[in-house]
Amino acid sequence: MEELDVxxxxxxxxxxxxxxxxxxxxxxxxxxxHQLIVTVERQLINEHVTGILxxxxxxxxxxxxxxxxxxxxxxxxxxxxxxxxxxxHFNAYIKKxxxxxxxxxxxxxxxxxxxxxxxDKMDNIVxxxxxxxxxxxxxxxxxxxxxxxxxxxKPAELIAKYVDMKLRAGNKEATEEELEQIxxxxxxxxxxxxxKDVFEAFYKKDLAKRLLVGKSASVDAEKSMLSKLKQxxxxxxxxxxxxxxxxMELSRDxxxxxxxxxxxxxxKELQNIDLTVNILTMGFWPTYPVxxxxxxxxxLQYQSIFNKFYLAKHSGRKLQWQxxxxxxxxxxxxxxxxxxxxxxxFQALVLLLFNYNAAISxxxxxxxxxxxxxxxxxxxxxxxxxxxxxxTKIPKGREVETTDKFxxxxxxxxxxxxxxxxxxxxxxxxxxxxxxEERVYQDRQxxxxxxxxxIMKMRKTLSHNLLITELYKQLTFPVKPADLxxxxxxxxxxxxxxxxxxxxxxxxxxx
Length: 511
Description:
- This is Cullin family profile domain-containing protein.
- GO terms for molecular function: ubiquitin protein ligase binding.
- Residues 154-384 form the Cullin family profile domain.
- InterPro entries: Cullin, Cullin-like_AB, Cullin_CS, Cullin_homology, Cullin_homology_sf, Cullin_N, Cullin_neddylation_domain, Cullin_repeat-like_dom_sf.
- This protein folds into 4 domains: 1-151, 5 helical Cullin repeat like (Up-down Bundle), CATH 1.20.1310.10; 244-323, no CATH class; 326-428, Cullin, Chain C, Domain 2 (Ribosomal Protein S5, domain 2); 431-509, Winged helix-like DNA-binding domain superfamily/Winged helix DNA-binding domain (Arc Repressor Mutant, subunit A, Orthogonal Bundle), CATH 1.10.10.10.
- The chain is 59% helix and 8% strand.
- It contains 19 helices and 9 strands.
- The strands form 3 sheets. It has a 3-stranded mixed β-sheet. A 3-stranded antiparallel β-sheet has the order 3-5-4.
- It is extended and about 110 Å long.
């Protein structure tokens, strides 16, 4: 045991046990079999269980030594508490290794793929080497749930973004069946997460972008993911997501009816512009900042016609136009010939200004379109500093300054006829990420408040510790006792409950 590596030692034990079995078969009295074999097992395995596990298990698991792990499991099955000890060390290894995947922010880019690969590897070991032993399967799940929640919120966010990457139209590397398998594996990881509301918030935001910018790889895959989430978390979790799909389907019908009405209308001059409008129900979709921008006269006229058409069919409703989500195809004329440019509405508004001016300063563009400065800088950067430079920036440089000037780039060439200029809407900004996290935080505050009031209304009077215990049973996301205490204080301030006059540790419900 001291001289040999663990795999060699296990081989030695196997060989010794076989030798004793042969001796029993050939010339030893069979009634001594039990005593003899038990003695060998005790001396060679039982006495060294902890030593074997400490010395070599991590390495065998790390190097995926399936043959040696199978032998280890079979030998440990022969002694009392052998599999229990093996299972405990297996669990400790998964937690230790898993934590290194989750905890390091530098590994965030590959975290989800690493988790999926790690889970596959461990599942294979349980199924192949440990004979699908239920005890090991449960231990594996418990270890994953433990380490994935060692870092709050981030794994949930990254899993949602991984699903977005897989469900986007650009993801051509997987067939329908492969995509389905990936989604099933993702759902296993999703089950381990405690803060599922974080996943929901990012998933909802990304789904909205996929639907609105036409980036979804397949409606079937989207619906499949939705039904998996519904099965896992219930209809309440997915009702808003289902509402988003319903809105898109209703919008298709509305647009069809609108186009028919336009053909019969007197606005012939607008018929060479093809307008598609998505009608989104406020409560279903993520909240987007309302931005006022200056639209060209034709678009304003078109919006007004659509408003009249829609409100004639649905009286009592209110339409609020959302320019941040719009996208357009512009026909552009370059020296090398005509091109179609796929752009966001903001990019379109900037480009249309060059129909009337050869060169325009940043401030002039800003005055003309009234887009917020940060948004305008990003828009101009994508048009003048990206891969497809349809504008030329003076002076040259990567960053856009308020003192810059811009010219239409007549010499622009590209082998494609339809060119997609990177759409800012698809890129998540840091502010957007923070806003999503903030929204989750706010929602949690409301949920805690509602749970406290619900419990107090039912119990009428309760001690602090019992109230905290009840809250932990009811809340579906991780929360610190200090945060609960803050919410209790807030409800006392707002007269939903009060401290008992005789016992400061007791709360009474105020009807």
